Task: inverse folding
């Protein structure tokens, strides 16, 4: 079995509008901290070194992460929307399917017709709890500021079509699941229509589903289906998202 990493690295990058800050405590400083309760410092430790540590400041949506229903709104399907640590593990390990939706911001959000055409092309019928991964190619911009502004997003109708078939987790290899923020805000200013604002996310108030944002490397998966995906989110108390190391497991 081949394991393929579908995650970006949590790091300081222009691609993250809320910067990820990592404060590295080296082994010498770590010794001072560990020894402090006993009144000793780094000089007492073997080689003058203790243990390293990092302090991290980031959002729950930094890097590759899973959005929970509670991110979309306070209610989902008429009940309190579930937070990330409340969701069943069964949603996050299962058969994967990669659909080719390669394009840029000018192509607009991924449509239902595209998904149907791609499924027809690969001869695959979706089953409940499949993990659907949409490859737009936007991950090539990871590391640049354009990653935040130049991607397609996924339409509400494509999202609802998948969720109505029992799909609980949909992933995309771009900054976000909806179109770029500036584009949606411009659409709103032009039309005054609230439906232009984060339409796929807002759909998640009607039906429970999770989306994985900021996947990477989907082009490295050598098959379109017939593999497994693990995308377990980290358990953050009452949070609307959790980071995930997303891995494709491909039979060799
Ligand atoms: Zn998110």
Result:
């Amino acid at each position: 079995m081949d394991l393929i990493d579908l995650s970006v690295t949590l790091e300081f990058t222009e691609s993250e509008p809320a910067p990820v800050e990592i404060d590295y405590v080296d082994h010498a400083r770590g010794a001072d901290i560990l020894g402090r309760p006993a009144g000793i410092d780094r000089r007492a430790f073997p080689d003058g070194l203790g243990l390293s540590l990092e302090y991290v400041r980031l959002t729950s949506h930094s890097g590759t992460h899973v959005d929970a229903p509670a991110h979309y709104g306070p209610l989902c399907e008429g009940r309190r929307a579930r937070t990330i640590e409340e969701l069943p593990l069964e949603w996050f390990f299962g058969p994967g399917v990669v659909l080719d939706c390669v394009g840029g911001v000018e192509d607009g959000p991924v449509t239902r017709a595209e998904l149907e055409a791609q499924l027809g092309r690969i001869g695959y019928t979706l089953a409940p709890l499949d993990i659907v991964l949409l490859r737009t190619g936007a991950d090539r911009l990871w590391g640049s500021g354009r990653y935040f502004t130049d991607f397609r997003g996924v339409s509400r109708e494509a999202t609802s079509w998948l969720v109505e078939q029992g799909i609980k987790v949909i992933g995309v290899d771009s900054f976000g699941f909806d179109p770029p923020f500036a584009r949606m805000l411009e659409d709103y200013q032009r039309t005054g229509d609230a439906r232009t604002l984060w339409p796929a996310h807002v759909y998640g108030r009607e039906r429970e589903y999770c989306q994985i944002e900021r996947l990477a490397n989907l082009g490295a998966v050598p098959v379109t289906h017939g593999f497994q995906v693990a995308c377990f989110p980290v358990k953050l108390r009452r949070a609307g998202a959790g980071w995930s190391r997303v891995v494709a497991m491909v039979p060799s």
